[in-house]
Structures are given as structure tokens and as C-alpha cells.
């Protein structure tokens, strides 16, 4: 057994014996509705529990044909995946010549595109998902929108706006909507309303009303559709973006916004769950707007345990002390395991793996770190305890964030795998205290093959790309893990998540080939496939030209089905535990 299959095994044992108490419950109170609902820590559909493996494909409504959408959903469904996560926003400040867009936000006025390249694309996605037996999590806006540079690289006016060069023919000329952070969102509202700090999106009444207006239009459209899994209020809401936060922004700012928007969505659509979409950052010491109430509700005759069943044990709050204790225990386990595997690195020796980007990850052992101290302005537990929020969400992207101190005695890949296992364990404990389901809405690890394409959420250029490497997809950079290491990490995280009682786990992101390419859209004809003849005659979009779905460094295209295999195994695993 290698280090991490051993750890994974150990984790299952630990999780099963100690870390998460699943409260017992009665079956009778479950509603038999074909909308997804919750019962304590479970998702329920038609009276049965639902646990799922999922994937992300923010670009689905931007595909050029209905056949492309149909085949993509068919390929996903064939793996056994049950839930997908898609952007239900596509804001522009100028109407694009080609391609999909949903809302024009221009100088403080808004209009929604209900045409065939507008919300009708989303209608198709929802309808086809229903036909293929898939559920869709729809995100309503994005924290991230770094501005692209327009032709010939106008220097950014404000240095806090990070930019991408979209000059045609340059290495960075990615089509619109190629990146997940290129669909408009919070900072587009802020700029087009003439304001300048990111958190004004959350606090300015005019912007809030405009966003609620968009939300109403989209939510009302699908009130009766059973294929909506949940309304996700925002991808990764936090105080800062590429527009900086004002000093006023705190966890209370973000929690208050969630409470307002969640109540609004529920008032329009009582049929569907509402989720946050935040990354799961915690703040154990922050003041709470929705404090955990440890007092049990008054006993109801129907809720009393059946004879012989254990009474529901009170959830333990997840505290700083518990986190530090868990970390010490994790370090002890890891050392033990790596000693057995013969991979332990002796104290003081640091072997820097090929893909580690920073040596700054070691932290004081009493310091819980930015993911737990409210630095991002997010208190995921306070958000989860808002009555209208149905279930918890978190994400895991170790190439872009630190989630805790690295154990310098482990090899870098083992540090990262361990970091993920610890993050999952903390999330399971934090949500168990609230008593609602919890899901991992996105996780990913960048491989060497994908390194030339890797673009972090707050950027528009690939930091490890050379012009040649991006054109060929063959990286000579020293960044990224091998496909084998990726598969092993994904397997460990999926197994750990299943063992810890996560209700849903979604990989980021799906890769689909054989898509219809049209010039000026997300799936554009590849310039490398074009013959000189075609480019001179302007026939660059002949009907049989095909393309790949976007790759921001996490796509499964080109891994020979390795990740699909891992996801398929996880589908069996999560199915077998019910
Ligand atoms: C739930 O029941 C409805 C109505 O019988 C049915 O159409 C739907 O497919 C069921 N959903 C699941 C997930 O079983
Ligand atoms: C998968 O997608 C391809 C197109 O890329 C399509 O030909 C095939 O039918 C799809 N498979 C399923 C099961 O839908
Ligand atoms: C933006 O709107 C304001 C107020 O409605 C108006 O005075 C101004 O001329 C507009 N600017 C542009 C560029 O349209
Ligand atoms: C609300 O949305 C509708 C439909 O797109 C639009 O006509 C209206 O101008 C919007 N109102 C505000 C205040 O944004
Ligand atoms: C909110 O935004 C509107 C529109 O730009 C602006 O007129 C108003 O002054 C802002 N309100 C506050 C309190 O800043
Ligand atoms: C949803 O269904 C309800 C009850 O059947 C109906 O009253 C309502 O008009 C429907 N809404 C939409 C948007 O179709
Ligand atoms: C921050 O708060 C102060 C005091 O309430 C207020 O005057 C100021 O306008 C706020 N700034 C922003 C950007 O919201
Ligand atoms: C936002 O970013 C600034 C630097 O741009 C930093 O000083 C501040 O602490 C950050 N605030 C939050 C809440 O993330
Ligand atoms: C993006 O986020 C990472 C991690 O927080 C940070 O190191 C980097 O400076 C950020 N880049 C931009 C352009 O904001
Ligand atoms: C990577 O490829 C680029 C472009 O071909 C080349 O200039 C560079 O020297 C290569 N770097 C290494 C470390 O091989
Ligand atoms: C590619 O997609 C087309 C329809 O869009 C389908 O007819 C064809 O069989 C697909 N080819 C492959 C290799 O999947
Ligand atoms: C829009 O699409 C047409 C037809 O594919 C193409 O000729 C044109 O160049 C595209 N325009 C832009 C701005 O991409």
C-alpha cells in the first residue's frame, strides 16, 4: 500500500469511528416530492436519500449547438454523474457580435436577453438535463471578473484591475467566455454603476436591487423544473476581487448579503434549495449574525426516536482548539504513514517538489491561517446557519489557496493530498454542527500537461505558459503534478469526502471534445487546425470544424479518460454507502 492509499484507509476508519456524528432521524417526516429537498443532514428526492458525484462546466450554455449540449450531458451521464454546476449569468457591457450573453449592464441600466443566444440557451440546458436525468446547480453571479485588455494593450488605468491581452493573434487571445472569470459578475456591476470597491456590490442599494431584478427573471423561469438542484447565490463571494474591498467589508457584510438574496430567491421559488457557493472559509472568532443554538427544538411526538434508536446527540461546535488538535493528529498520522512508506523527510531538510509554487506555506502552529481567521470576509458557518440556506458548500484548489500549514516532513504531493483531507474533515465538522448537508462544489489539481493552460480565478493569463507550450499543450515548465499523481489525489479526496459524510462532491472541470466551432464564440476554430487556404479565403468556420471545451488548467481533456475513471469509481463508492 502506498502512503496515500494507506492514509485513505486510515481516514475511513477514523471517520467511521469518531469525527462526524450523523444524527438519527425518522423516515416518516420525509416529504415525497420530486424537487430536491433536505432532511437534517441529507438530500432527499421522492422520499429517498441522494448522495452524488458531480462535475463543473460553467461554459455549457455558451456552446454553439443544441446537439453539443445534448452530447456533453450524455457523456457526463454515462459516467454515472448526477449533478452538474453551470453559470446562470453572462453579463456584458457591450452587446457582442457573436456568442451567448444574458444581461447587458451599461452605465447603470440593465436589460436581459431572452433570445436564442440569451436565456433560451439556459432553457435548453435545463430541459436536456431533465431528459438525461441530471440535476443542475445554477450560479447567479461571480466574485471574479478581471478586465481583458482590448486590442493593443491599453495600460490599466487603475493598477488594481488585472488584465488580459485579447489582441487577436497574440498568445493570450482567448475567446470571450473561455475563462470562468470572463462572464461578468460583481465587478462588472460595480464599474457600470460608476462605483469602485468590490464590496459595493454587496452594500449599494441600487446595485442590490438590480441584481435581485436579474435573479427574479432567472429564478421565476424555472420555478417548476425538477432538474434544478439549487440556486447558488454566487461563485466564491468574498470581500476582495480584482477590484479591492473597502475597509468596511467584514464577514457580516457577506453574511448579510447572503441572507437578503436567499430570502428573495425563496420568496419567488419555494420549490428549490438555495446554496451559497462560497469557498468554505471559516472564522471561529468572528461575531455571528446567526449563532448556533445548541438548545434542541421542543420534542414533537413524530420526531421522537423509534424504540431502540439512539437519541440525537448534540453536535459539537467546531472550535479553534479542535482544529489545532486535528492538525496535530493529522501530522502524527502522516509521519507514521510516511515512515512506513519510507518517504519521511527528516527534520530540517526541505525537498522542493517540481510543482510547489511557494515556500511561504509554513505557519506558526497556533495560527489557524487565512482560511480559518476571517481574512477573506467569509464565515461559512454563519452563512450556512441562515434559515433560507439549504446546504453548505466549499471548494478546494490547492494551486490557488493555502488551507493550512504544510507538513514539511512530507513530500510536496503528499502535503497537498493531506491538506485536502484535512480541509474536507474540517468542513464536515463545521457543517455537522449546523445540521445541514455539505457539498464540495469544486476541486482540482493542475497537471504538468495542463500547466501551460492554467489560469487562476483572479487572473487572465497563464503564468506558466510559453507561447510554444500553449500552442502545443506540451509544457516544459516545472509546474504541475503527473496525471498519476492527480488521479491518486482525486481518489483520496473523493474517498475521504465519502467517508466524512459529504453529500455531494464535484470535480472541476469537465472536458468535452467534438464541439461545433464558430468564429468569435467560446468554441472557436483552432488557429493551428486552419490551413493557410482557409484563412486567406475567410472560410475558417466550415461546418465540420470541431473544437474542445475550455481548458483553464483543470480540464480532463487529454488525460486519456483517467479522471473519468476515477469519478466512475467514486460513483460506485458513494452509491454503495447510500
Ligand atoms: C421522482 O418522481 C417523479 C414522479 O413520479 C419522476 O418523474 C422522477 O423521475 C423521480 N425522480 C427520481 C430521481 O427518482
Ligand atoms: C458523447 O459525445 C459524443 C460527441 O463528442 C457523441 O457522439 C456520443 O454519442 C456521446 N455519448 C453519449 C453516451 O451521449
Ligand atoms: C450615463 O448615464 C448618465 C445618467 O443617466 C448620463 O448622464 C451619461 O451621459 C451616460 N453616459 C454614457 C456614456 O452613456
Ligand atoms: C428589471 O428587469 C427588466 C427585465 O429585463 C427590465 O426591463 C428592467 O429595466 C429592470 N429594472 C431595473 C430597475 O433594473
Ligand atoms: C449606490 O450606487 C448608485 C448608482 O451608482 C449611486 O448613485 C449611489 O450614490 C450609491 N449609494 C451609495 C450609498 O453609495
Ligand atoms: C408553477 O406551477 C404552479 C402550480 O402548478 C403554477 O401555479 C405556476 O403558474 C407555475 N409557474 C410557472 C412559472 O410555470
Ligand atoms: C465605509 O463606512 C463609512 C462609515 O459608515 C462610510 O462613510 C463610507 O462611505 C463607507 N465606505 C464604503 C466604500 O462603503
Ligand atoms: C483585501 O485586500 C487588501 C489588499 O488589496 C488587503 O489589505 C485586505 O486585508 C483584504 N481584505 C479582505 C477582507 O480580504
Ligand atoms: C490571485 O490570488 C493569489 C492567491 O491569493 C495571489 O497570490 C495573487 O497575487 C492574486 N493575483 C491577482 C492578479 O490578484
Ligand atoms: C521552454 O520552451 C521555451 C519555448 O520553446 C524555451 O524558450 C525555453 O528555453 C524552454 N525552457 C526550458 C526550461 O526548457
Ligand atoms: C461528433 O459529433 C457529431 C454531432 O455533433 C456526431 O455526429 C459524431 O458522431 C461525433 N463524432 C464523434 C467521434 O464522437
Ligand atoms: C462572427 O461570426 C461570423 C460567422 O462565423 C464570422 O465571420 C465573424 O468574423 C464573427 N465576428 C467576430 C467579431 O468574431
Blueprint (SSEs and pairs):
Layout: H1 3-19, E1 37-39, E2 42-45, E3 48-50, E4 52-56, H2 66-78, E5 83-87, E6 91-92, E7 103-106, E8 109-112, H3 119-131, E9 135-139, E10 148-149, E11 164-165, H4 186-192, H5 200-203, H6 205-221, E12 228-232, H7 251-268, E13 273-275, H8 320-341, H9 380-384, E14 392-396, H10 412-434, E15 438-443, H11 467-472, H12 483-500, E16 504-507, E17 515-516, H13 532-537, E18 546-547, H14 562-576
Parallel strand pairs: 4-5, 4-16, 5-9, 6-7, 9-12, 10-11, 12-13, 14-15, 15-16
Antiparallel strand pairs: 1-2, 2-3, 7-8, 17-18
Bound molecules: 2-acetamido-2-deoxy-beta-D-glucopyranose (12 copies).
Q: Name the average pLDDT.
A: 85
| CATH fold descriptor | TIM Barrel
Strand order of the largest sheet: 13-12-9-5-4-16-15-14
Question: What helical percentage do the residues reach?
Answer: 25-40%
Strand content: 5-15%
The count of helical stretches stands at 14
Mind telling me which CATH architecture this is?
Alpha-Beta Barrel
Question: What would you give as the CATH superfamily?
Answer: Glycosidases
What is the CA–CA distance across the termini?
Answer: 27 Å
* Number of extended strands: 18
Secondary-structure class: alpha/beta
Gross geometry? globular
Task: Give structural notes.
By secondary structure, the chain is of the alpha/beta class. The protein has a single domain, classed as TIM Barrel (Alpha-Beta Barrel). The protein has 14 helices and 18 strands. The chain has helices spanning 3-19, 66-78, 119-131, 186-192, 200-203, 205-221, 251-268, 320-341, 380-384, 412-434, 467-472, 483-500, 532-537, 562-576; strands at residues 37-39, 42-45, 48-50, 52-56, 83-87, 91-92, 103-106, 109-112, 135-139, 148-149, 164-165, 228-232, 273-275, 392-396, 438-443, 504-507, 515-516, 546-547. The strands form 5 sheets. An 8-stranded parallel β-sheet has the order 13-12-9-5-4-16-15-14. A 3-stranded antiparallel β-sheet has the order 1-2-3, with no helix packed on it. It has a 3-stranded mixed β-sheet with strand order 6-7-8. It is globular, with a radius of gyration of 23 Å. It starts with a helix and ends with a helix. The model is unreliable at 9-28, 151-162, 348-364 and 528-541 (pLDDT under 50). This is Glycoside hydrolase family 5 protein. Keywords: Hydrolase.
Amino acid at each position: 500500500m502506498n502512503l496515500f492509499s494507506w492514509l485513505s484507509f486510515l481516514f475511513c476508519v477514523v471517520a467511521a469511528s469518531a469525527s462526524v456524528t450523523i444524527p438519527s432521524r425518522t423516515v416518516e417526516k420525509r416529504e415525497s416530492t420530486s424537487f430536491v429537498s433536505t432532511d437534517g443532514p441529507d438530500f432527499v428526492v421522492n422520499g429517498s436519500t441522494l448522495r452524488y458525484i458531480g462535475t463543473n462546466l460553467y461554459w455549457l450554455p455558451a456552446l454553439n449547438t443544441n446537439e453539443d449540449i445534448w452530447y456533453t450531458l450524455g457523456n457526463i451521464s454515462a459516467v454515472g454523474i448526477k449533478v452538474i454546476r453551470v453559470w446562470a449569468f453572462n453579463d456584458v457591457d457591450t452587446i457582442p457580435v457573436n456568442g451567448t450573453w444574458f444581461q447587458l449592464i451599461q452605465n447603470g441600466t440593465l436589460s436581459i436577453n431572452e433570445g436564442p443566444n440569451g436565456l433560451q440557451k439556459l432553457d435548453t440546458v435545463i430541459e436536456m438535463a431533465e431528459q438525461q436525468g441530471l440535476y443542475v446547480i445554477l450560479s447567479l453571479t461571480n466574485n471574479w471578473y478581471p478586465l481583458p485588455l482590448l486590442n493593443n494593450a491599453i495600460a490599466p488605468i487603475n493598477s488594481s484591475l488585472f488584465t488580459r491581452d485579447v489582441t487577436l493573434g497574440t498568445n493570450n487571445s482567448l475567446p470571450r467566455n473561455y475563462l470562468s472569470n470572463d462572464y461578468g459578475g460583481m465587478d462588472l456591476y460595480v464599474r457600470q454603476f460608476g462605483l469602485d470597491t468590490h464590496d459595493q456590490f454587496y452594500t449599494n442599494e441600487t446595485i442590490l436591487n438590480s441584481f435581485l431584478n436579474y435573479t427574479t427573471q432567472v429564478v421565476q423561469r424555472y420555478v417548476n423544473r425538477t432538474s434544478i438542484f439549487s440556486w447558488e447565490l454566487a461563485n466564491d463571494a468574498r470581500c476582495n476581487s480584482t477590484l479591492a474591498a473597502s475597509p468596511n467589508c467584514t464577514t457580516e457584510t457577506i453574511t448579510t448579503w447572503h441572507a437578503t438574496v436567499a430570502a428573495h430567491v425563496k420568496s419567488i421559488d419555494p420549490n428549490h434549495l438555495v446554496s451559497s457557493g462560497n469557498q468554505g472559509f471559516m472564522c471561529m472568532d468572528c461575531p455571528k449574525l446567526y449563532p448556533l443554538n445548541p438548545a434542541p427544538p421542543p420534542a414533537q411526538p413524530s420526531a421522537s426516536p423509534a424504540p431502540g434508536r439512539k437519541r440525537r446527540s448534540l453536535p459539537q461546535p467546531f472550535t479553534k482548539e479542535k482544529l489545532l488538535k486535528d492538525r496535530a493528529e493529522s501530522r502524527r498520522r502522516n509521519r507514521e504513514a510516511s515512515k512506513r512508506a519510507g518517504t519521511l523527510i527528516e527534520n530540517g531538510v526541505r525537498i522542493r517538489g517540481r510543482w510547489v509554487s511557494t515556500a511561504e506555506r509554513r505557519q506558526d502552529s497556533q495560527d489557524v491561517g487565512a482560511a480559518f481567521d476571517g481574512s477573506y470576509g467569509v464565515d461559512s458557518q454563519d452563512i450556512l446557519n441562515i434559515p433560507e440556506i439549504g446546504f453548505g458548500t466549499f471548494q478546494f484548489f490547492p494551486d490557488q489557496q493555502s488551507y493550512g500549514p504544510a507538513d514539511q516532513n512530507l513530500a510536496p504531493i503528499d502535503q497537498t493530498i493531506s491538506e485536502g483531507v484535512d480541509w474536507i474533515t474540517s468542513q464536515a465538522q463545521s457543517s455537522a454542527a449546523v445540521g445541514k448537508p455539505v457539498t464540495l462544489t469544486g476541486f482540482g489539481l493542475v497537471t504538468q500537461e495542463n500547466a501551460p493552460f492554467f489560469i487562476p480565478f483572479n487572473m487572465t493569463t497563464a503564468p506558466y505558459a510559453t507561447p510554444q507550450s500553449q500552442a502545443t499543450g506540451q509544457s516544459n515548465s516545472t509546474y504541475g503534478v503527473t496525471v498519476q499523481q492527480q488521479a491518486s489525489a482525486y481518489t483520496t479526496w473523493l474517498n475521504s469526502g465519502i467517508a466524512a459524510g459529504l453529500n455531494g462532491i464535484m470535480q472541476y472541470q469537465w472536458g468535452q471534445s467534438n464541439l461545433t466551432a464558430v468564429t468569435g464564440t467560446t468554441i472557436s476554430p483552432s488557429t493551428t487546425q486552419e490551413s493557410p487556404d482557409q484563412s486567406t479565403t475567410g472560410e475558417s468556420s466550415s461546418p465540420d470544424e470541431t473544437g474542445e471545451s475550455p481548458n483553464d488548467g483543470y480540464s480532463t481533456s487529454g488525460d486519456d479518460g483517467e479522471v473519468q475513471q476515477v469519478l466512475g469509481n467514486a460513483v460506485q463508492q458513494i452509491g454503495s454507502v447510500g
